[in-house]
Amino acid sequence: MEAPHGGCNDLPDIEPTEKGWAVITHCALFSFQDGTSEEDVRRLSDALSHLPDLIPEIKGFRHGTGANLPTTTSDYGVVVEFESLDDYKIYASHPEHLKAIEQYLKPILKERSAIQFEH
């Protein structure tokens, strides 16, 4: 089965499941407040890294800092894949997800944008 990512087959952690390919993608972009330290970002990244182990509805997970290219307008990005809208809703309200937001993101967050799309 070919990956439904516009011909990009180099996405190793998004695998077909018994239901097929993930059908909901959540993308969030964050800009941090001035004075945010590398340690603050590392703590956020560490907290986010644990979410796929704690939330079984996550079928694919990528996150990281911006690449410092001229077109980069955010400091950090998160892309999460789900099999269904219901799985996304479970993730969005999951206590571990909310804990990561409250403890590690909100204290350094300046601006956030997000989209969820079906494919």
From TrEMBL:
Residues 24-117 form the Stress-response A/B barrel domain. Signal peptide: none annotated. SMART domains: Dabb. InterPro entries: Dabb, Dimeric_a/b-barrel, HS1/DABB1-like. Pfam families: Dabb. Homodimer. This is Stress responsive A/B Barrel Domain. It comes from Ferrithrix thermotolerans DSM 19514.
